[in-house]
């Protein structure tokens, strides 16, 4: 996919803003970003599959399943807190909606059933979908993202997603993926793990690297 000059400039602006967004420490010096990994954040919740659709149990299980089957997978970057990445985290309700769409069902499955269905797509497919949610090389905060309408972000899967900042008075952010037949994911939680090189934003749908029927 060709990236326009304007989009490239916007992407550069994201990176530049993100790299200068660390909070200032005493004596006027810039405080270095921490190295707590996103994997540590995801695995800190020990509740397992539950009825809370707004946490990330299915995502955490998917990451662990990929790394168990493929220890050398690029997904392991999420466990390396020294490497800057920005990830978009679909919550459990997002995965349940995805499975309902795939199965052409109007009824949302439970979290365990949703994970089983996602895992049933095959570990390589799960890996590809996870990598489509990771933007390597930049720590993109909410403040930087809000200034980057139209930017195209290259993901660890190799494909791009587009930033759509919308709303006249209260600015919101959606992410335009490869699926043109479904509503685009919207960011519903910002700056998870803020202050570290690895940052994430929660989204209400799973980013789709292909156009699902």
Automatic annotation (TrEMBL):
Pfam families: Fasciclin. Residues 1-21 form the signal peptide. Residues 43-207 form the FAS1 domain. Gene3D superfamilies: FAS1 domain (2.30.180.10). The keyword rRNA processing does not apply. The keyword Signal applies. Keywords: Signal. This is Fasciclin domain-containing protein. The lineage of its organism: Bacteria, Bacillati, Actinomycetota, Actinomycetes, Micromonosporales.
